[in-house]
Amino acid sequence: MANDSLTIRSFAKINWMLRVLRKRRDGFHDLETLFQTISLHDTLLFEKASETSLACDVDGIPTDGSNLVLKAHAILVKRHGAGPVAVRLSKKIPVGGGLGGGSSNAAVTLLAINRMFDLRLDVSTLGQYAAEIGSDVPFFLTGGTAWGGGRGEILESLPDVEGVSLLLVVPEETMMTGEAFAALGRTGEDDVWATGPGGWRGAVERGLLGDARLANDFEGYFFAKFPHLDDARRKLRESGAVVAMLSGSGSTIYGAYEDASVRDAAAVELAAPLRVVKTETITAATSQPFPEDG
Ligand code: C5P
After folding, report:
1. Cα–Cα distance list, 6 to 22, 31, 83, 270 (Å)
2. Is 0.85 topped by the overall pTM?
3. 209: closest CA among 190, 237, 235, 232?
4. Closest residue by CA, ligand 1 atom 11
5. Catalytic positions, please?
6. CA of 269 to the centre of ligand 1 (A)
7. What is the largest CA-CA distance in the chain?
8. Per-residue pLDDT tens for 34-56?
9. 152 Cβ below 6 A of ligand 1
């Protein structure tokens, strides 16, 4: 059914783990990662309008054609004749923190415009457009807990890792994704061993938080560049986090707790001078704006 206006939540993600396998001829890197949708979210309001526009309630977010929301909309205008929309973005996901806020906004824009203009594009077509916009965008079309391969666009859904209490440390320092990949100095000859989706499915079924293979290849470069943030990671561990690790290419560090009350106490303890955000893992179904379209 087509709508004249839609309000949609746009959830953030963490990466439970991330291995960078090799550099490809197209300049991207093949990787292996485990994506996880979390409850922290932006909200987007889409309204049919005579002209396309984007407004955001926080400063420092580009509202021109460089914003991934407008890139996603432009693809569906050009290829499928979607009409103009006025978009209002209420931003809660920290920017430049490896939480995928811009990518998530782009994915929900594809879903919203598909719905509002009754384009009837299936998930695989939207997935191709999503991958053109950015490596992390396809994940947000389905969400939940998923294995990611290729440059992040090859996805396999895993059983939901549901209701895990998280504490995010969100530093002021930001990390550019391209810089982080380049710093690893991978070549086409490298071939880092990957576990594959089957192996991670088993890990999720056994209890992911206890899995000794959870690691992030960006940590070496990141903590060498920002040693004081290694202290923040250590504080998360000392506060009772079962896992404390960099998310994506940074700069957010997540702590995962078995007990929400331990996480809550840690949030109070770490809040000064660090910026911390309490959040939870959510299921693929909860992350979907239009589950019936899936
Ligand atoms: O796809 P996205 O725009 O998020 O990527 C930003 C940059 O990060 C790319 O231009 C590339 O330099 C690097 N990247 C990479 N391998 C990936 C994803 C990103 O080298 N799998």
Report:
1. 41, 35, 14, 38
2. yes
3. 237
4. 178
5. 13, 136
6. 35
7. 55
8. 999 999 999 999 999 999 999 99
9. yes
